Queue: 3 jobs
Job 1
Amino acid sequence: MQPSAFDEVQFFRALYHSGARALLIGRRALVFLGLPVLTADYDFWLAIDDIEVFNAAADGFDLHPSHSAAEARRRGRYVLENDEHVDVLVARSSTTVDGQVVEFDSIWARRQAIALDDVSVYVPSLDDLILTKQVAARAKDLEDIRLLRILKEESR
Amino acid sequence: MIPAAIARAINAPATASDLRQALEQPIDAGERQEVLSLVRWFTRRYPTPADRLAYVRQAYARWRRAAPQGRPASAGPEREHERRSENGEG
């Protein structure tokens, strides 16, 4: 199967111009940082007040939300999809498997901006990206944590 | 499709003990060098984030074509490294 016609650079450009406070997390963030990992999906952690503007930007790419904004706020996550799949976390905070509370506002404040053409894509700091991996904490997240540790040590 | 057993394994929830090990276990020089070598290759060959996004999108599609059917669950860098070696890229 060929990649769809989805223009992901334009997608990131639209998200940037929407003004939504959206952090790219998950494996695509690792790709931005230079790690050649494969992934099918996009994962964002979005400010809970910015669902509407984020969805409006995604709507231009025929990405449709699985839940209304009100439902998404209640559930803490939702999905945007067509033949692309965008997981969106909208919780004010999440808890790692070892009980650390990770607050969106804190990691947003420490975010790093990565230039993508004429816009920026925001990803958590390396330490915070490692923290986000501890929330889901699946086997593949543990693998990613080791990759991120190596990047972090190299960047010192 | 990636066999269900493998998909289950890579998506299996880790225990707090597994997590502690991933966070604290020393990373040996061989693993570090392999990962850094991949990063150097990737960022040299695909110097911009846009290049990297496009590469991953194409690599995913290629991988999906190679799979008998369905959607692969995940792949780590070591698998990409093997593919590069097979294709003489680097």
Job 2
Amino acid sequence: MDLNDTPEQAEFREKVRGWLEAHKGDAPPRSGSSEDPDYIGARRAWQGKLAEAGLAGATWPKEYGGQGLGPIEQVIIAQEISRAGVPGILDGIGIGMLGPTIIAHGTDEQKSRYLPPMLHGDEVWCQLFSEPAAGSDLAGIQSRARESDDGSFSLNGQKVWTTNAQFASFGLLLARTDPDVPKHKGLTMFIVPMDAQGVTVRGLRQITGEAEFNEVFFDDVTLDVDNVVGGVGNGWGTALTTLMFERLTIGFGSESFGSPTHLAETLAKDDAARRDSSVRQTLGEVITDMTAVRFGGYRALTVLQKGQIPGPEAGLAKVTMVNAGITAMDLALDVLGPEALATDSDWYYLTSFLPGLKSAGGTEQILRNTIGERVLGLPPEPRLDKGIPFSELRAKEKEALAS
Amino acid sequence: MNLALSDEQQLLREAARGALSRHKTVEAAREALEDPEALPDLWQMAVQAGWPGLLIDEEHGGAGLGVFDAMLVAEECGRVLASVPLLGLVPATALLSAGGDESLEAVAAGELRPAFLPARPPGDLESGWTVEPASGRARAEAPRAQVEGDEVVLDGRVAFVPDAPGAELLVAVGEAEDGSPVAAAVPADAEGVEVEPVTRYDATRSLGHVTLSGARGRRLDADGDACADAWYVAQSLLAAESVGAVQTCLETSVEYAKERFTFGRAIGSYQAIKHELTEVLRRLENTRSLLYYAGWARESKPDEFPLAASAARSAGGKALDFAARSMINVHGGIGATWEHDAPLFFRRAELSRRLLGGTHDATDRVAEEAMAAPA
């Protein structure tokens, strides 16, 4: 057992650290308003610098501007960026998930047109998958792309929970092209220029009061056949690639929410709380959970280092982390009282943010279904949608609601 | 980054599993509830496997391995509810090693069986060393220790000492007049030593109330850190043992959930069952991660060992409680019958959670360590 770098990794870390040390003066602050164009501009420029230094898209193949490195090097870069106190890349979604999808399924033209500006932050991307009526059951999306006589497509529908849409140049969008086949079969993946006629982006405010996500509306948006990624009717397979990369990014970014150290320090300063057995029990549980996630992450890295992909059970770390975070905030509020709910308090943001995070990247219930079936080998829940054309399914749903 | 088992550790685990598979330990756990004689004596098996010397260095005839290796063996024992006296043995060998005691060779060879009399290190709310009380929540004072040259005279009572019956050497921690801990090796047959065997609820767990009345032992050259270390080694072993038991609970429950049908489908297809079993897996994986932390911290970051071992113990105790109750739930009524294995794991869970300070105390220690950590 060893938590240290191999000599090669240590050398790589040294190189990354050295570069960050020399250039961190050029970096914008770690956080800022996503509605401030100057801040976003600075973050794009910083991503460009990271890309030139080989610190963005390090796992991408060299031919697309990446470094062809492994996930461990990616983690080392992330750790060093965090240590240097500078922000990372702005377009984590593009570089972490959408770029790799295009690398796997895109045409040569798409790769050479879209990947370099994505990598350098010149063009930011957003993911247009979830809809108001399709999240966990993603294949149930209703956004419709109709093929016209000239071979182009006309897109209508709505997407939601879209991070970065307000300043994105492109989106990777899953749409239904054929409603008369079972739902997984009639889907197609498109590249959508966000400045196209008929695209409307609206901020979606959350409990925090901030609009970190967007809703995106499509009204008769014309898409060329060149915008199809992975072939018409193959959208589900293409989406699975994106989701696999999403699992990787979610799994390894989650060091911790809500700084357990800050919570412990706060409680230690309050003598009554420090001596209170129920406070100590809850704090002990929170710290235990968060520590388990940290070492679970190291176990997952060990698997990666051997060239394997961690199993879906790594997703349980998210369940533990979010729930431990919620318990931590609850404890802080119990001890500090209503003052901790002030908008500018240290506890306001996470208290408001974590309830929604339970559903992010797959709801807790869906995650437990997947893990129960894929890891424990339990039989799936019977499904009423298998083999039924999507249009018929929708008709049945409407009928059920009406009766 | 490498948190994987080495080839040697894989072999150690497989060897333990192989040795244990030759005994009907789970059946024995049931029979022993009514007939204590039914419990097989696994000490000879442990000696043949070299477990007494796991932590003792090679110079003294041991294997010179780490606590994590001992935890792997404990996990295998937990998996089949085997009554192997590791909980008394391993922390005792840690303390005997730290003190460089003359008994090390004999212990490593399996000729002398030691047991650790657990003493809890002081905390931020309790300044003294304490031991298990015979009953109640308030902890008992550690035995009083009077140092006389190379010898220590001990007076006091330690209740619910794992593996005390049958032990030939008791490794105790007493408190000197100035409050400092004093470690001593007391032959079990010395004058003033009384061991009253007790079993509670889980027949596989051999316990004893130990009374020391002017009992004389060899003074171990071990400081407070070494005494505390033995306590946390014991916590780590309990955690590892729990992980093994949780694993069996989960495997058995999953198999049943696939086979048992209601309303035309396997019960494991219902989310209510599936999510409960996924919760067992979540707790299992979390505890397993903490076992790695505990094993790693003891070798490489001793300052964090109290936190790591306590976190593992806390998570493991709760995981086993949850897993054993789930096993009963998933099996329905049959899971609550005498003939079923589930109650045996439940018995293991409920007693284990209350030994060595209890899960509650371990959780408290995690909080204490977190609040004491420098910013």
Job 3
Amino acid sequence: MNVIDQRIHQVLDGELAAEAVPAELRRAVAQLAAAADLLAAPPAGAVTSLESRVMAELRRPAPSRARRVMRWLVTPHAIILRVRPAWSVAFAAVVAAFTLFTAGQEGPEPAEHEGIAQFVGRFPEAQSVHAVGTFNDWRAGSIALEDQDHDGVWRATVLLPTGTYEYMFVVDGERWVPDHLAERLVADDFGRENSIVIVRPDRR
Amino acid sequence: MDVRGAPPDAEVVALVLAGDTEAFGFVIRRYEAGLLRFAARMLGSRDAAADAVAESFVRAYRHLASCREPARLRTWLYRIVTNRCKSHLARRSVADVSLDDAPPVADPADTEADLERADQLVLVERALADLSPDKREAFVLKHVEGLSYEEMAAVTGERIPTLKMRVHRAREELLKVLEDHA
Amino acid sequence: MKRWVVLGCAAFLAVPLAAQSVRGRLSGRIPSEAIPAVDSLIQFASQEGLPTEPLIQKALEGGAKHVTGPRIVAAVQVSLGQVRGARDLLVHAGDPPPVLPAEITTVAWALRRGLPASLVERVVAALARPPRAAALHAVADLVAHRFDADSAAGLIIEAVHDGVPQERLLDVSTAVLQQVQRGHTRAEALAIVRRDLPNLPAVSKPTRGTVAGARRPASPAQP
């Protein structure tokens, strides 16, 4: 446990006066307060007000009944089912049998030294998103992400030889964006950061 | 942007519920800066934050009648934004930290103090992003948005001791990072 | 005798042919005035038995990102320095020359990801048998999440010695990070995972549907 002196918490929670604690604790209090101030400061660059965007949405006439039904049909909903275990086992068996019989009829079979790489990014306004990196000699076009349900989330699942790759997303053919979901980032020596994907062997 | 002289929240809510859609503009102008800052800190992206807050305002407008205490509109709005951020994080679609969100490239006119401040901000933002969502939420509500523990409880639906513990743990983790880099 | 002559001719021809193919890959992809300098850096690497692919990729990346020729050359020079440094580290750690190019690339990755050279050397020396890619990435993952570097390396080395297979070493770092997400401190998380070694939590594999939906990129990929 990385526990700090409780008096630091008491000062920050307003339960104890700062003057009542030793200087080294006051320094910790000041460090945390300064961090909070930095986070609270307005961000650099202009911030566009949301008012016109939100008000335009609110002023739009209410959708027709048919449109509301359509929207309900295409929106994800959480459904709670209460099923007797016997029925769910039977259902699972049917699904499993169906899957086994139909498996292998679509998609390429991963080879021994191949694995699956999944690329996901949220780009609500994008017209196109590509994964570009050492897996395709940094050429756009070979791995296009898709947003089939138009929710702004773009995805691609590809088979690649196992190994470590650097890449970025190219949005609308011109904007280079790192994939922060990748969690592994490395300086690209051109002033930006590439994401890293490690493809591990994965056989069907 | 100036909202001084605007009617209090309870009156604005009454106006909107009476059919004056335009009065909702007061609500947006009054709270968007804080909500945007909160969502950006939670999601790590200004674009995603703008989407989350805009969706929250639309939702708030549509469900305004269910705001039982119009005088506490602020906490109610934070609750909606909190939920939007959580579902956003649960979908793990926070990969949209675009280059627009990256720290600005140093300007030759920046003073040394500006650069140091920018470096420190990057450090603090990374440390914040490393916290679990619960702890991040608690720290930001408490220290960035300045909510009381009672207000935080109303926003998150958690008990005050739980929130206090989360804030304490967040402070400890952040302080460790700050001291390591001091 | 005849066979040696053929082999000699092949070796004699191999270097110029490789040079041609490198120029072919770079042609039209980076500013033409940068090609001679980049090409000669790649030839240096090739003559020293160093992997050339990282250098070629760096040049292609610069071209794709519309970086100027001089900056591309500078970045390729940095890459050459990195693979040389990685080779020297491996030799120093006890790998007999000629060092495997794949291991050089692996160590160059680890250094680029910010691991201190002394730590990389410690991991390499402790894991005598290549490949060490998974081990070094696992350590780098933990260090990137601000774990103490020595403790992170210690855990991964211990995992290898306890019989955790190569392909599961990244699951060790993932397991540690999961413990932190559950609210444990970093030290506690390391201790919990170490205690359970060589057992690791099951990893979620891609579903059959995901695998079926996977496709190969339009152009061939090389690691």
